[in-house]
Amino acid sequence: MEAEKLESSRYRGDLDLYHALKTHPRLGKRIEDAKSAILRRTIRSQLLHSMVRVDARLLPQIARSMERLQTAAGLADAIEMYVFESSAVNAFITRGRSHLFVALSSGAINILTERELEFVIGHELGHAMFDHVDFTVGHLLEDNSIEPRDRMQMFAWKRAAEISADRMGLIFCGSLEIAATAMFKTLSGLRLDGVAIDVAAFAEQWDHLMAEVVQSGDADGHWQVTHPFPPLRIKAMQLFWRSDYFEDAVGLRLEGSRPSLASIDQETAKLLAMMDPLARDDRNTGNPLLVDFFQWGGLHIALSNGELTPREKDRLAHIVSDDRMNAAINTRPTVDSTLERFVDCLKRRDQRLKPLEIHKIMEGLLHIANADGQMDANEKQALINVAGTLGVMPLAVEMMITKFPIEG
Predict the structure, then answer these.
(1) Residue 286 within a domain
(2) Do residues 123 and 247 both lie within one domain?
(3) What is the average pLDDT across 109-123?
(4) Which of 127, 192, 336, 340 has the fewest CB atoms inside 10 Å of its own CB, making it the most exposed?
């Protein structure tokens, strides 16, 4: 396939966030500086003394697959492949001074079939094709001085980048069932020789996850992960598989009409929005912006001490935007009026808030309550007041506060 057609498969959300971060006034230069540092690394020596290098004599099938996929990807870089000891199915790609390095776990070699490994290898090569490897934000995600909104944007890009890489793995392995089986084995650690995974059933797990993740207590920090939930990734690949991209670029023929890749990207954005606490709207129902909840709930908490501090104002502005913050302040908000406006946000909705949406709101408000590096009794009570309108019990708020990292 032509390189141009491969590049056109990139998820639009990945590309948009990539450019947004590249031109970001606070982060752009720091990301570029990290890219320069990559080229000075001596990672090859570290890999050679801690892993097994793959060549045609040691693992001929994998070496051949790597060579074929690299040619198909149009990557001119020198690439070396390594195997590291781990029973889990895992892989990564990184860059040194003169090479790209793809590493597979021993668990991946032992458990995955040759075509399933092609999905995994294709996924890693996708990161190289779309410039994810050189555009590193990992060091910034560990920097506590980075504003929450900026961190959320970086995490959102990391997840969007995984969607693009999954698409490349899917193209190279050539089968949705093989991609799903590879992902299922990655999660379960089961070999399942000769057994194919029901893609639709696997994708349905996302719907169950949306309903249960908060109540089960597994949602803490769900936006602070670099990879989308696996069932979300399967659902996104399922959408991509049925897009007109495969008919035009790959020649795959399926019954029925094929939606455009642009519309598939929009549907994928809806899925990823469920992992983003700053999702701007409920795209499934067209209801009012969730950002309104952050704005009025955040002001209610910030004003609970009698005034809006510069740090609180800055934190709120980063979450809801400077324009919205200034407009809200011009209304001369009070503790009572902000709570009333928060309740109005609920009344304007056509449907009840979903559990994940409630968790998004609470997580954002916790960031505001901790804007000064601590949460006093007034802020805590204000948070409980807001949570009560959402149906969240005071004990649940206490648990969230306990688990939430205090920022300095």
Answers:
(1) no
(2) yes
(3) 94
(4) 336
